[in-house]
């Protein structure tokens, strides 16, 4: 398993991280706690030492599952990342989303971050977080205040490093001048390349880790989802325009050469796509949502896949053939 730095202010972590959103159940049609614990443990056993969760995933449930899965393991061998800034237990001026009868609000006020870090530590069953991240920006709180709060938590030993998610290039560049910013986490995949000209160059210039979320486009890049696939009730892919029949058809054509390469190499499509993603300039880690032990074993293997220049070019050509999700909207 390859490891890379989480930026110059962070520590080493496996290039493949266990993405723990789906195991929280919320927005993914529920989850099975035992299968989820087994999936986390299988990932750790296969060499993945980096886990990305968030307080809001399953409203604390994902962090609890992760806490249970790492019980009895050597804590210093695991890089635990979680996020703050989305509250479902209080109201603030900024409504983020309404979902499953809950209203989720944004806040990065210092007192709220401090309360959240304590709650996450309890749920994770640990006394420090390796990488603490803002989940979404809070328009009511200046970035200077967020940086000050994170720097204080770091000095107090509650967190080892900190990062931002879903941030604008301007705020990201500013935060990098204000404190020891380690990472930026954004949506990035073969199908979602907006960050190539936005935050990725800023991460490269400032030695920040760049963590790709939804790197297999929530399953689309397995090449195995077609219009017959039924998603569970409450799964965000139900009725989602990114999973429309037109998108799925176009994707079959785009992925055909990757499928053929995967067959020749004896790998799977998503493994090649993830390995290609890890070779993009500025990208440091992929956070892959993993729900069971089979996915855990397969996703961990990506950490040792090498692609030669011809194979990289072939997948890049497939990526260039993708017209973009916007071209499918009415
Ligand atoms: N910062 C943020 O705002 C933010 C936002 C989104 C995600 N994230 C982070 O990024 C992580 C990953 O993103 P994501 O979960 O949205 O999407 P993803 O990693 O692109 O896709 C995950 C889904 O793909 C399927 N899958 C995974 N491995 C597979 C395999 N080997 N073979 C076949 N199918 C496989 C699973 O769904 P099925 O088995 O049900 O098909 C899984 O739930 C999250 O868990 C979270 O940690 C962060």
> What does the largest sheet look like?
8 strands, parallel, barrel
Give the topology string: H per helix, E per strand.
EEEHEHEEEEHEHEHEHEHHEHH
| Proportion in helices | 25-40%
Beta-strand proportion: 15-25%
Class from helix and strand fractions? alpha/beta
Count of discrete structural domains: 1
Main-sheet strand order equals 3-4-5-9-10-11-12-13
The CATH homologous superfamily corresponds to NADP-dependent oxidoreductase domain
In the predicted model, the low-confidence regions spanning at least 5 consecutive residues are: none
Helix run count: 10
**Mean of all residue-level pLDDT scores:** 97
CATH domain class: Alpha Beta
What is the CA-atom radius of gyration, in angstroms?
Answer: 19 Å
Bound molecules: NADP nicotinamide-adenine-dinucleotide phosphate
Concise synopsis of the structure shown:
With 330 residues, the protein is an alpha/beta fold. 36% of the residues lie in helices and 19% in strands. The protein has a single domain (3-223, 270-305), classed as Alpha-Beta Barrel (TIM Barrel).
What features would you describe in this structure?
The chain is α/β, with parallel strands linked by helices and 330 residues long. The chain has one domain (3-223, 270-305): NADP-dependent oxidoreductase domain (TIM Barrel, Alpha-Beta Barrel). It has 10 helices and 13 strands. It has an 8-stranded parallel barrel, surrounded by 7 helices. Strands 6-8-7 form a 3-stranded antiparallel β-sheet, with no helix packed on it. The chain is globular. The N and C termini lie far apart (43 Å). 45% of the residues are buried. NADP nicotinamide-adenine-dinucleotide phosphate is lined by residues 19-22, 52, 135, 165-166, 185, 213-219, 222, 270, 287-291, 295, 298-299.
């Amino acid at each position: 398993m390859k490891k890379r730095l989480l930026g110059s202010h962070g520590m080493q972590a496996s290039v493949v991280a266990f993405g723990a959103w789906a195991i929280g159940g919320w927005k993914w049609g529920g989850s099975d706690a035992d299968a989820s614990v087994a999936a986390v443990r299988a990932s750790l056993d296969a060499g993945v030492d980096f886990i990305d969760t968030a307080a809001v995933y399953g409203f604390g449930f994902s962090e609890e599952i992760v806490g249970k899965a790492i019980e009895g393991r050597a804590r210093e061998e695991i890089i635990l990342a979680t996020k703050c800034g989305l509250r479902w237990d209080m109201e603030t001026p900024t409504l983020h989303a309404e979902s499953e009868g809950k209203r989720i609000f944004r806040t990065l006020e210092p007192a709220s971050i401090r309360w959240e870090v304590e709650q996450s530590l309890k749920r994770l069953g640990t006394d420090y977080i390796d990488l603490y991240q803002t989940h979404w920006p809070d328009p009511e709180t200046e970035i200077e205040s967020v940086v000050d709060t994170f720097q204080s938590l770091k000095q107090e030993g509650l967190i080892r490093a900190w990062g931002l998610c879903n941030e604008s290039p301007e705020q990201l560049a500013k935060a990098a001048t204000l404190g020891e910013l380690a990472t930026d986490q954004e949506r990035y995949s073969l199908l979602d390349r907006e960050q190539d000209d936005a935050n990725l160059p800023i991460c490269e210039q400032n030695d920040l880790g760049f963590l790709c979320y939804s790197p297999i486009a929530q399953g689309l890049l397995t090449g195995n989802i077609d219009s017959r696939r039924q998603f569970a009730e409450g799964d965000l892919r139900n009725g989602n325009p990114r999973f429309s029949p037109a998108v799925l058809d176009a994707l079959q054509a785009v992925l055909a050469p990757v499928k053929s390469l995967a067959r020749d190499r004896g790998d799977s499509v998503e493994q090649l796509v993830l390995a290609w993603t890890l070779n993009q300039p500025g990208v440091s880690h992929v956070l892959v949502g993993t729900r069971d032990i089979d996915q855990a074993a397969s996703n961990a293997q990506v950490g040792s896949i090498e692609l030669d220049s011809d194979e990289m070019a072939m997948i890049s050509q497939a990526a260039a053939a993708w017209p973009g999700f916007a071209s499918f909207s009415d």
